[in-house]
Each structure stands twice: as structure tokens, then as C-alpha cells.
Hints:
- There is one protein chain.
- By secondary structure, the protein is an alpha+beta fold.
- The chain has one domain.
- The chain has helices at residues 7-18, 23-73, and strands spanning 93-94, 105-109, 117-129, 137-148, 151-162.
- Strands 1, 2, 3, 4 and 5 form a five-stranded antiparallel β-sheet that branches.
- The radius of gyration is 33 Å and the shape is elongated.
- 13% of the residues are buried.
Amino acid sequence: MPTADHPVFSRRQRRTRRAGFTIVQVMVAMAVIVICGIAGVQALIHVNQKAAAMRMLTNARAVVQRNMDTALCVPFSSSIEPPILVITSAGGAVYDDDGGGDNLVNLALTRSGTDATVRGTLTRTVLAEANADGADIRRVTFRLDYVFRRHPYRYEMTTLRTVD
């Protein structure tokens, strides 16, 4: 029977002490993994929120660009003045581009199960531009104001238009 002084016992004892991890090492490793996991999930949530805000901005840009294209492409002459190019006050006028009569533009339907719609107010401003030739030049501005996740946003475009 080997004793504690026996060389076989002491080698086996040394080998047992070196093998494996201590509970403290395992707990520290688990804590590091949990902290990295929490940080990763928070980063993904933040990136998703930014992506949603950028999708709303893209939708707002599409609405403003659509109205800007309409203002640029509609026939306009000294005898024909389309409603989209009628001169407004400097503050502009609310413009109902979808014809719904509510003076709101639908930007997006959210998929949260509540069927919430993100809506905005489209403002059209048309001002006469002074020029030396006395030409009928109009500065057309479309601005879309909306609220997404309790933050106000605004997208605006301006162009010049003259008679055809």
C-alpha cells in the first residue's frame, strides 16, 4: 500500500492538483461571457433602432421627392398654373398629397401588432423669386415633419421652377 511519502502517490497528487479549473476560474469565465453577451445584445438593439429611424427617413425622402418631381414635371405656362405651384405665404401651407382630407401623410405601418401608423405633416411653400428679367421663377419647398419613437424629425427639399 503506497503511503504519502511514496513517489507514485506524490506524482499522482501533483497531477490531480494541476488538472482542471477551479470554481473561481469557471465563474470568472462565465461572468466575462455574460457581460460580452449583454453588450452584444445592447449593440444589436441600438443598431436596429437606428435602422428603423433610417427607414423612416427614407420613406420621408420618398414622399418629399415624389411631390418635388410632380412640381417639376407638371405643365406650367402663363395660362396654366397648377395647384401645386400656387404661391403660398412664407410659412407655407399644409399640403394633402394623398387626397385623404386629413392633411397627414402615411410614412409607414409598424409591425408591432398594434397597427400603428407613422404619420407626418407635409408643408408646401411656393415663393416668387425676384430676378432682373422679371421672369416668373418660383422657389418650391416641400417639408415633411413627423415623430418617430418620441423624437421629432424633418426632411426638406427645395427647387426652382419657371414656366415651360
